[in-house]
Amino acid sequence: MKITTALPLLLVVPIIGFVAYQAVDQMRENQAEEAARAKASAPLQDDSAAAAAATVQPAPAQPEESGPVVVSAAAAAAIAQQNSAAGTTSDRDVADIRRRVMLGERGTYIGEILAVRDSGLARWPDRLDNPLRVWVADGAGKPDWNPRYVDQVREAFETWALTGLPMKFTYVRDSTDADVVVSWLDRFDTQITGRTLWSRDRNWWIVNGSIMLALHHTGGEPLDEKAIHAIALHEVGHLLGLDHSSDTMNIMTARVRVRELSDADRATMKLLYSLPPGSLKN
What is the pTM of this model? Predict the structure, then answer.
């Protein structure tokens, strides 16, 4: 009699345990999905763990070459129209994009970007007919300000454009008309000299961005024109969708040691803009 009564209990207990395990597992999956959605919607901050901001290292002997923007309603509508026209990446395209990455990755650091971005690629829509609007602030009144710094920033944008990007840039006089705002500060509190933030939509198209550049190292040493140009090149690289490279000969290394784009910088940017944005995960 006792054995007969115990048998149903022995069968029920594993079932209850299995149901409880499934419920906990489902709850964890839901929490993970929520965290992923929150991360995807957040703007990229250049001094975050994912992409630290640029710092120009002073050379021992000779100098080595070394919040999201609020757009107008009209600009926002134009962005939405461009992104819609550009389309999205479907699951069936992911395998083809992976194949294109594998074929084109030699001589680039696209693999490092995918590793940092959790297999995601973000970039601006093509902007040949409708150039990206850039506003560069005047730093007049700030210590050691040089009006030629504005030209160094514009030159940085044009240098990237010459890599063969499907992008053109135009420089506007009013920040409210800009897709990208570049501003200045005396120095950062941490060991960086530049910071970039951008925002993307759910399809990984970048929609706006901002760059902040320092006029001095954290210790107070002023940055000259060549250093400003190098930092601007680095930060514009971030703005356009690149992340850091471990090779110190690239402008996109975390601590800038060169003043010009490398072949790998150019090749990586060209490859990025030959691909649609999105996640390459299964």
Answer: 0.72
